[in-house]
């Protein structure tokens, strides 16, 4: 029996979609969508493919051949993913070209299909080639705290976790994927339960999606392992819910971008030779998904080593170390992330109030957005406060953060982002204006909040800022909060 398909992913013209409609209909409702018309000016679309839509493999060998990349062997499973090997882009392309010239009888000797199929994944292309501007991120996906943060900071602060390999693999979440017809990605939900977008520069992909409210159906009885390949003959005994799952399907063509919502399980097949660009990201709308995953993974990490608790010198630190290694961040990384992002939003709010805001009753869209951001951080901090422990926190000296040139970079990138979204970016960023900010006047940093080490400090900081600007509970309770509450309903649907 095949998969039950409940519907097709909606397809709309991205040029005719306002930012607000994208947020309300897709980010907040957490629904997938295919967007057309957003890749018209991309250099990648000119350089990386031919008129007929096939990838220009020689271009990659010639210009980026020396890059070392991760390549998945589509026919070999390793735990929950495909086996990965490292190779140069030119070796990868040589293999691809050699396979494409083999005739079909040779290929049938390669164990039917997947054995020889190599799929280049997670290539940190933007990080590696910043000068070669292959594309610009569409405005709809710009409010990306993850990559904005990683432009300035590393996610890991623990030197034990922060190793050479992590340096590359966690440096950012902006990737290029390349694979011949038949390459594929097993069923999964995205890292950190982030949103993602994936743009087809060449080729065609088929996607199958399962909404968070149905994800338990692809898990085994213990809710530990999920189905690897939805086209396998999946055992009813092992995965009793699988046949009941109702999937959404989508064929994504060249020059189309698919938005993948938080926590949706999905499997992807390349139906033609394909090159795609792919970002993972999160922001105010899905921050609580990230926290829920972190909490779930933390509880699992703890349970896993429970039997050595008594002989462990610092059990909690070990749990946090394992969490960082397995999930990509731990509680203190997340706390540092939220604190710096909150401070950058506060600075921007300060500048908005100083320069443009006249009345609290009619705040500009960009100021409303900043308030929503802070409310979302406060909400997650309230939940985090329930599990704060000594080693889950990091100590951030707020005055040091504010002086740090890396923090100024984050402020600049955030300011540019919101200006682009709301004002179509007219003015240049003014470092002098930032250097003139009088933090003492702002009374942000009351003496008790100089050192931030617990969620309750972050909550107090945000409350202080709101009361400083007169953002009272009537504004907090306005439409901004109902948006967050609505989101919470979707987030709670996600049980695994
Ligand atoms: O394109 C692929 O093979 C996988 C992409 C993916 O899973 C994602 O964007 O989340």
TrEMBL record:
GO terms for molecular function: 2-oxoglutarate-dependent dioxygenase activity; sequence-specific DNA binding. Residues 126-298 form the JmjC domain. Pfam families: Cupin_8. Signal peptide: none annotated. GO terms for cellular component: cytoplasm; nucleus. One of its GO terms (biological process) is positive regulation of translational termination. Belongs to the JARID1 histone demethylase family. This is Jmjc domain-containing protein.
């Amino acid at each position: 029996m095949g998969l039950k398909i409940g519907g097709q992913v909606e397809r709309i013209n991205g040029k005719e979609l306002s930012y607000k409609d994208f947020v309300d209909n897709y980010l907040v409702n957490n629904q997938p969508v295919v967007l057309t018309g957003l890749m018209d000016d991309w250099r990648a679309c000119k350089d990386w493919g031919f008129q007929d839509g096939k990838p220009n493999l020689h271009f990659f060998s010639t210009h980026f051949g020396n890059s070392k990349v991760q390549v998945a062997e589509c026919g070999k499973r390793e735990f929950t993913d495909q086996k990965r090997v490292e190779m140069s882009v030119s070796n990868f392309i040589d293999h691809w070209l050699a396979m494409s010239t083999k005739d079909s009888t040779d290929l049938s000797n390669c164990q039917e299909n997947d054995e020889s199929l190599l799929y280049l994944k997670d290539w940190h292309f933007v990080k590696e080639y910043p000068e070669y501007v292959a594309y610009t991120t569409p405005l709809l996906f710009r409010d990306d705290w993850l990559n904005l943060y990683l432009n300035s900071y590393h996610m890991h602060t623990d030197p034990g976790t922060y190793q050479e390999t992590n340096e590359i693999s966690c440096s950012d979440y902006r990737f290029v994927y390349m694979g011949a017809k038949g390459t594929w990605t097993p069923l999964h939900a995205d890292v950190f339960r982030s949103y993602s977008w994936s743009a087809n520069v060449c080729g065609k992909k088929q996607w199958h999606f399962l909404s968070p409210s149905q994800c338990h159906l692809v898990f085994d009885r213990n809710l530990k392992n999920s189905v690897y390949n939805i086209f396998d003959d999946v055992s009813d005994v092992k995965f009793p819910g699988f046949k009941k799952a109702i999937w959404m399907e989508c064929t994504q063509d060249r020059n189309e971008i698919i938005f993948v919502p938080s926590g949706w399980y999905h499997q992807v097949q390349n139906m033609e030779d394909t090159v795609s660009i792919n970002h993972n990201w999160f922001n105010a709308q899905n921050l609580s998904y990230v926290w829920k995953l972190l909490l779930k993974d933390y509880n699992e990490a703890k349970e896993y080593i429970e039997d050595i608790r008594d002989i462990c010198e610092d059990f909690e630190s070990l749990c946090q170390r394992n969490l960082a290694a397995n999930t990509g961040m731990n509680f203190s990384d997340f706390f540092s992330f939220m604190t710096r992002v909150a401070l950058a939003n506060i600075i921007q709010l300060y500048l908005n109030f100083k320069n443009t805001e006249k009345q609290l009753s009619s705040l500009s869209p960009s100021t409303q957005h900043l308030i929503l951001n802070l409310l979302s951080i406060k909400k997650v901090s309230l939940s985090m406060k329930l599990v704060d422990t000594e080693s889950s926190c990091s100590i951030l000296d707020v005055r040091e953060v504010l002086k740090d040139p890396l923090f100024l970079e984050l402020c600049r990138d955030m300011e540019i982002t919101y200006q682009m979204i709301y004002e179509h970016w007219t003015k240049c960023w003014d470092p002098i204006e930032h250097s003139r900010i009088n933090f003492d006047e702002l009374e942000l940093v009351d003496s008790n909040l100089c050192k931030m080490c617990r969620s309750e400090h972050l909550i107090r900081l945000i409350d202080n800022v709101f009361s400083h600007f007169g953002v009272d509970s009537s504004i907090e309770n306005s439409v901004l909060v109902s948006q967050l509450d609505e989101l919470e309903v979707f987030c709670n649907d996600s049980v695994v």
